[in-house]
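Notes on consecutive records. When two proteins share a document, each keeps its own sequence and its own token line. Never mix them. Below: protein one.
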Amino acid sequence: MYNIRTDIIVNGDISYDGELIGKIPVPDISTKNKNILIHENDGLYVPDNTINYQGGTGISITSNLISTKISTTPGNSLTSDSTGLFVPSSSSSYTAGNGISINSNVISSKISNTSGNILTSDSTGLFVNGTNTTNLVRRKRELYYSNLNIQFTDGIEQNLIQILKSLTPTSGTLDTFFNTTSNKLNVYNFNSSLNFKLNIYGTWTTSSSNMSFAINFTNTQFNNINQVRTPTITVDTISFNTFLSVDENGNLVTNGTPITLMSHGGKFTVTNLLLIAEQIVPPSMSGVSVV
């Protein structure tokens, strides 16, 4: 009788007669020192003790389950089971390619092309740093005045909001864009233009050949519009349509602007007036910057 563990060294095929004590030895399999895979009759096993296995550039597998973790950067681990691929629940930072940074345990939660310039989305729209840029809304004020008797003396500049705040409009309210405390036009702090319209109906009291009527947004650059009329026109509707470019935290946001009117070449008496201002902004913006 031979003890196969102590009496025989197997270095090839063997044959025997009689009873063998112990398991027939089979070769261990190894690709590197201490990187041992053990073969048994029912399959291939990793030893129970923890061993680090290295395989390929950038792939590190730790523990005795070869397929549990995938990593391209130390600590940047993905795990999988029968339900899918997972990021560890603990906070980690994952980077893949230029311009895509993924934080937290939801791989598709955030997209960034500039540091701190985060785009996120949900069922309501696309957000930049928490500001909705998809479902924008129009903020509008429209007022109509009738049966007026506002006189503009030749060459005398007057503030439009200061005039209107003491009058009762036929429709609409003088608020939001029109600050009756500072007598300035105010805007929302958002990168979108403010559209402005003023129609005034009235009568000239002169037949001068140099009649005109002007509007001026005095805190802006060269937004001075002048409407010229011929001597044959006495009853007239003068219309001013323009837009003011608004920059976030820019001049109009931080300072606002007065709106002034002036008649040239004679007195003009206004009897009816239509005033409209509107700006496209995110729905989360409920009020203008009051200045």
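Protein two starts on the next line and is unrelated to protein one.
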Amino acid sequence: MPTPSAQTQPARFDDRLHPTPPIYSRLPFITTGKVHGSLARAGKVRSQTPKVAPQEKKKKALYNRRFVNVTLAPGGKRRMNPNPEGKSGST
């Protein structure tokens, strides 16, 4: 019958019974399975999708219409709001 003190102590590795330690103590890390696959398939989805011409953005088109493609009188300056209402305007 084991003594009560032997039951309370945690189980320890006995070198006499096992000359080599268990596998988990010999490895510096525990290897796990791969999660996302190999890099051989990287970029697969992007290369399979059809090429679509980019659409012109609304704000860029508005900027071009207001400021870039405008003909000004000599010495004229294009402003953001040429006819403001209120204090700073003509009314």
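For the record: The first helix runs from residue 4 to 8.
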